[in-house]
Structure formats: C-alpha cells, structure tokens
Design a protein that fits this description.
This protein is mainly beta. The chain is built from one helix and ten strands, in the order βββββββββαβ. Strand 3 and strand 4 (about 35-40) form a beta hairpin. About 10% of the residues are buried.
Length: about 120
C-alpha cells in the first residue's frame, strides 16, 4: 500500500495562511495477462494540518479527495528487446472532492479524468 506524507516548506499553495501537512494513501489491485493488464488504483488525500485551508484564511478541512480509476495496459509487440518493453495504456479516473479542493474548482464536487499514454520500461 503506497503512502506519502508532504509538508509545505516555504509558503503554502492553497488560499490559506499557514504551511500545511498532507497524507496520501493508496492501493492498486490489478491483474496482468499476456495480452493486457488492468489495474484499479484507489487513493485518498487527507490534510493533516493546514493543508486544505479554505480561501482567505478560512477553516482547515481534513478530507481532500477520494479517487478510483481503471487503467488498461497493452504491450506493444515486435520491438526488439534491446529497445525495452513498450506499451500503450489508457484509463478513466473519478475524483470526489472535499470542501477545500471543491472551493478551488468552481464548486465542482467531482471530476472525471481520462488518460492515454505510451510507456517504456528497461
């Protein structure tokens, strides 16, 4: 289970007045096959202190967001192994936003994000 803790060091990035601390927890269950793989990354972002402050120095909120995704990865065949392992991948992510992030997104309480890419691994 991946986890990360962040701390604002020189000022802060939201609309508040104090430097904050942030915690992110996630899991990415999935399955891989010869033809394709599918993963379902799920994360939660939480303000430990002063991270999701409301604009203008308002209240500090704990819940930042919850995210769940579906990502499909398909290997590209026919490329010599010395050039690495190539793939194409795409997915859709749904984010439910807490009050702090919602206030910075014109009142939108959720976001849907599509992605597509080409990957390389050695």
């Amino acid at each position: 289970m991946p986890a990360g803790v962040q701390r604002e060091l020189d000022g802060q990035a939201d609309g508040g007045t104090k430097e904050g601390r942030y915690l992110e927890l996630g899991v990415a269950p999935g399955i891989s096959g010869k033809m394709a793989g599918i993963a379902f990354p799920t994360k939660i972002g939480l303000g430990l202190s002063n991270y999701y402050e409301m604009p203008g120095g308002g209240a500090d909120t704990r819940f930042g967001y919850f995210s769940v995704s579906g990502i499909v990865t398909v290997p590209i065949t026919g490329i010599p192994a010395r050039l690495g392992g190539w793939n194409v991948h795409g997915g859709v992510e749904f984010q439910a936003l807490g009050d702090g992030p919602k206030s910075f997104n014109n009142g939108d309480g959720s976001k849907i994000i599509g992605s597509f890419g080409i990957g390389l691994s050695y």
